Amino acid sequence: MATFYVGQEGPVNALALNRDNTQVAIGGRNVFKVYKIEEDKFREICNLRASKHLNLSFSCNDVSWSWTDDHYLATAATNGHVCVWNLTKMGKAMQEQDYQEHKRTVNKVNFHASEPNRLISGSQDGTMRYFDIRLKNAVAIFYSNTESVRDVQFSPHNPYTFSAVSENGSVQLWDVRRSDKCQQQFAAHSGPIFACDWHPENTWLATASRDKTIKVWDLTSKLTLEYTIHTIASIGHIKWRPQRRYHIASCALVVDCSINIWDVRRPYIPFAAFNEHKDIPSGVAWKEDPHVFLSSGRDCTLYQHTFDYASRPASKANPQGVSLNNKGEILYAHKINVNNAIVKAAVGIIR
Amino acid sequence: MSLKLWHQLWNDVFAVKIVPVQFVPTPGTAARDSNSSRDLGLGGDVVALSGAFRFLETAFRGEIPPRRKRNSFCPPETDEAQPIGLFWIEFWRVSEPPYRNLTKAELFIFGPFRRTNNLFVDAFLQSNRLDHVSQVMGYHTSYLDHFLKTQNFILRGDGPLPFHYRHYIAIMAAGRHQCGYLINLQKQEFLLLGGEHSWLKGLSSIPPKLKNLYDINKILAHRPWQLNTSHIEKLTKGKDSWSLAEVIHAIVILTHFHSLCSFVFACGVNQEVDQAGGYKYQMPGETRGSAHPSNTNQSNPKDIPTVDITEDWKNSSHVGPPSPTEPEVGINTIMQRMKTLSEQNEECTPVELAKRFESIETQSAELGLVGAERLETPADISCFIEDGKFGYQDFAKRDEQFDFPTFRVQDYSWNDHGYSLVNRLYNDVGNLLDDKFKTAQNLTYYTMGGRTDVDTSRFRRAIWNYIQCLLGIRHDDYDYGEINHLLERSLKTFIKSACCYPERVTKKDYDRVLREFKHSEKVHVNLMVLEARMQAELLYALRTVNRYMTN
């Protein structure tokens, strides 16, 4: 399998795969398209901006594809609208719903993984809204009491739970049936949190922040901070790698144009990096296969990457180690070029 | 507080006041070059002055009356306002009975006591003077705190640029708006830090490296949307090149001082005591009219008219009859409109919204301005200006509509991108700026004029977005129609003038707008002009640097 990409008219803000990973939807200020993913290229099957009635509702911050019904897409618009699109229809009729309930930019939309027609959104106005896409209005409103909600994600482990992260650095866990108050809230970062992602198997929640860390929280009974990854730039997006318990992908918000895959147990150097994007990547979506994923970028591209082409920063690092004993002696070890004479001498010492 | 203590304080202050107070290095800031301060004939009175400050501080700390029960809507900082101005109402009026004086001068100097006082002490220790800007900002203690921290950091904290460079860059920035007040303050700092006298002759005498910055200075000050990667490239490549960190540092200083000019003019801040045009101590019996600078061969900066400030401030609380041409919308009306706006759930098509944004832009282009264009600039200011004709151009009327599209905040925002970039390249200044922006944006005491428990968020948001709209920045999620509902024409004119043509604004204009509002609220509006403008300039600059780095 090869790496391939397709260029766009403008920066891409988000992407979403359909249920069986055969198609991908991408959205941005000037981009809103659906592609079929073929063996070695993307084939455009629908351009939703072809409509004559373009407006700000078409400029997306986020895209989500329904898990239960392949015909439905939802978008979060910069002007505060949440739109639902029916891909089986044509022209203006495609836009089945246009919820104008949020007062500020909507940062995130997500379809429920098992409950059909259910959709949640998180907005700059500090609220989350739960929609039934057959109804004209939100069925529930959740007030986070923070300035703004940056990401909302349904838990894969409990159909009623979702997490929300906000610009004041706190994480909230909500029950969709209880809009009066959140189940749990904790301060996770010292700056705005831009993204969160549930681990597909463990009850772990990863959060990524402007404070240049990714943190992994264990939410079983007692809340514990399991791992902290230190990145070189603010992180805007994270996604766990399927079938690899300790791996997570991250995209920076500025400065760092590569997509990094981290092993959470090795928090200072990425396990693998993908350097194809020329500007910052805005989103990552894994196909079920842990070796293949798609990414969108501010450099106006949509990529499919495979692990065969990953660079391995860790392998380029100089292995060395330092340790101190209780007598104040320092032990320092580093790699040297192998030279027979030295090896022999070393063997002699050990004897 | 006992009357006896007041008298004692007054006597002390009086004693302090007759020594030359200004730019006296204190032991606390010994980092300064001792030679240069000797050159200026300073020193000596240090202990007297800072000692008096310490005395005041301790005296007050012991004697603060119990706090009045807090209004539940008041943030903790705004409880009991105390008259605290006596040691910075400089020199004048000491001869009259103190308590009565205080009520007359309270305009400048009401504030929550402890914090403001401590901040003033800090400000004094930082720059060896308590400048008028800090005093005016003292209305908003929480903001002043962040302002002083930031200003101190960018001028005196760790950073890539040499110290005298920083002050010279500040001079260049203030020059764009012919702000003699800031130029003079920065000149002194520049010299104290060992800057060469000859540089102050003007732009022709400075090293080419500094000179190269001028283009960016000019563009950022007036038409930030014209900044592009080639400007950054020119600066960072070739001979006398700048590192990216230095560029960012310079940009932060430039934008800080551009927008500070807006604040200085819009509040009608007076010259410092030691500056030409500053007021001077009057002996009892001396007539007010003689309060003019004695040094006549120095040009008298026009920006701040040397009116008798005592009278001026005294009268400004009950300014004469409203001018017949611009009937002002009262606070009640504004409150009513805010209420209607929050009640109506008007669904408006996005096309309509886009139109409203454009119409605000176009209307703003048609607005008149306060004041007249300056005919001539005094020589001691004009030497720091190059291409003085280059000025603001209405964004709606820009020549190259296609080259400079509207800046969408949703595509490059301070929170997501600007902060991260500036923090990366220049030691965590992002945190300071972030706090400052947030404080300015969220500051509210839930009051308007005399009314309490008012949700002012719509009014504040309208002002903030209007300022950024003037510079071509659009918030996708804002209905610009609200601006016309909440900001009446005279306020828009004032804001536009303060933001884009600050040099034309005078104290009179400050008095004319928002007549029903309190001084602290008017200063608040001016703070928002400062911050919204600075953020806008920074966004343009940082986006450009970002583009330069990724290309």
Automatic annotation (TrEMBL), chain A:
Pfam family of the protein (one): WD40
InterPro entries, sorted: WD40/YVTN_repeat-like_dom_sf, WD40_PAC1, WD40_repeat_CS, WD40_repeat_dom_sf, WD40_rpt, WDR24
Annotated SUPFAM superfamilies: WD40 repeat-like (SSF50978)
Keyword terms: Metal-binding, Repeat, WD repeat, Zinc, Zinc-finger
Residues making up the signal peptide according to the UniProt record: none
GO biological process: cellular response to amino acid starvation; positive regulation of macroautophagy; positive regulation of TORC1 signaling
Cellular component per GO, a single term: GATOR2 complex
Positions of WD repeats: 99-141, 142-184, 186-227
Molecular function terms from GO: zinc ion binding
SMART domains (UniProt xref): WD40
Family stated for the protein in its record: Belongs to the WD repeat WDR24 family.
Protein name: GATOR2 complex protein WDR24
Organism annotation: Tenebrio molitor (Yellow mealworm beetle)
Record lineage: Eukaryota, Metazoa, Ecdysozoa, Arthropoda, Hexapoda
Automatic annotation (TrEMBL), chain B:
Entry keywords, A to Z: Cytoplasm, Oxidoreductase
Localization annotation: Cytoplasm
Entries under PANTHER family matching the protein: P53 REGULATED PA26 NUCLEAR PROTEIN SESTRIN, SESTRIN HOMOLOG
Family from the record: Belongs to the sestrin family.
Principal place of residence: cytoplasm
Catalytic reaction list: a hydroperoxide + L-cysteinyl-[protein] = S-hydroxy-L-cysteinyl-[protein] + an alcohol
Coiled-coil positions: none
Name of the protein this chain belongs to: Sestrin
Skewed-composition ranges (Polar residues): 292-301
CC per GO annotation: cytoplasm; nucleus
MF annotations from Gene Ontology: L-leucine binding; oxidoreductase activity, acting on peroxide as acceptor
GO BP terms, alphabetized: cellular response to L-leucine; cellular response to leucine starvation; negative regulation of TORC1 signaling; positive regulation of macroautophagy; regulation of response to reactive oxygen species
The keyword Nucleotide-binding is assigned to this record: no
Family annotation (Pfam families): PA26 (PF04636)
